[in-house]
Amino acid sequence: MAPSPTHADPHALARRALRLAADGHRALVGVAGSPGSGKTTLARAVVDAANDWAGEPVAAYLPMDGFHLADATLEALGRHDRKGAIDTFDGWGFVALLERVLAEPDHPVYAPAFDRAVGEPIAGSLAVLPGTRLVVVEGNYLLAPSDPWTRIPPLLAESWFVATPEDERMRRLVDRHTRHGRTPEAALAWARDVDGANARLIEPTAASATLTVDGGLPVDAA
């Protein structure tokens, strides 16, 4: 029988993650999960909790979403209607960034972030600064069993998979897509057909994670 998922307590998870970086070396912890699982919320909360606990900025958040291919590139590839699928990211670029974050702790390493307001990545909008001991890496495909994604787990001190019931993920996704301008009908179709197809690839990767975290309830801020 599989172990029960760990409660999504960012303070307990932050302490766990900081112990991985206790030897003075920078540690990367990966937070994976399907669209709508709550992995972004959890990853950000863990970073905030780690910085609060340490009393200084020792942790940074680094999302995979900054490596979305630009809309113009997706149009040229004929993949714009599948935006978010594994082949619509610059996976090799993301791996190279993680390698740099580990290898270059003595100067800032800049990274792109995805701006949902414009629907495009923005270059250099995040920074991993010297003194950062913990980097919480977040994304759908961190544990995907194909190249270049298979190069990511060896870079991680631990990997956490956020497991959330499908009906709750769908509710969150429809709400998200509606807030970002889709009609309720279009939001449901995208959540079912595009996000759903991605989830079918992502969900089996939970088996290779170090830890499964329960994403079905709001992140515990206590």
From TrEMBL:
Q: Where are the transmembrane segments?
A: none
> InterPro entries, from UniProt?
P-loop_NTPase
What SUPFAM superfamilies has UniProt attached to this entry?
P-loop containing nucleoside triphosphate hydrolases
Record key words, sorted? Kinase, Transferase
* Superkingdom as given in the UniProt entry: Bacteria
Molecular function as annotated in GO: kinase activity
NCBIfam families found in the cross-reference section = PRK09270.1-2 (NF006743)
**Protein known as:** Nucleoside/nucleotide kinase family protein
| Taxonomic source organism | Leifsonia shinshuensis
